[in-house]
Amino acid sequence: MTKQQYNDNVAYFIAFCVELYKGNTGMKGSQTAILFRDSNLTKFLEENFEPIHTQSPQWILDEINDYLSSRKSQNND
Fold it and tell me: What is the pTM of this model?
């Protein structure tokens, strides 16, 4: 796989995650994208693409929620 193909796969995966989270929360796409960016969730998903992208949608959603919860608790400390 070329670097470009890998980058495309990561981008498609992040888009899938945005849509998955958006559909689960009822947020608008732009709100979800901003949340992913501002919480560094996009970077987390990119850095952990290999182990995460093969999991079920529910597992991915749980991982996203766990990540956001941990970030929220860190910000409240």
Answer: 0.90
- In angstroms, the CA 69 to CA 36 distance is 13
Token pair of 56 as six digits: 């079920």
Write the DSSP assignment of 25-75 as a string of letters.
HT--HHHHHHHHHHTTHHHHHHHTHHHHTTS-HHHHHHHHHHHHHHHHHHH
Hey, what are 9's tokens?
Answer: 């796969």
pLDDT digits (tens, 9 = 90+) for 15-48: 999 999 999 999 999 999 999 999 999 999 999 9
CA separation, residue 48 to residues 26, 30, 31, 76 (Å): 25, 23, 23, 25
DSSP per-residue codes, 2-27: -HHHHHHHHHHHHHHHHHHHHHHHT-
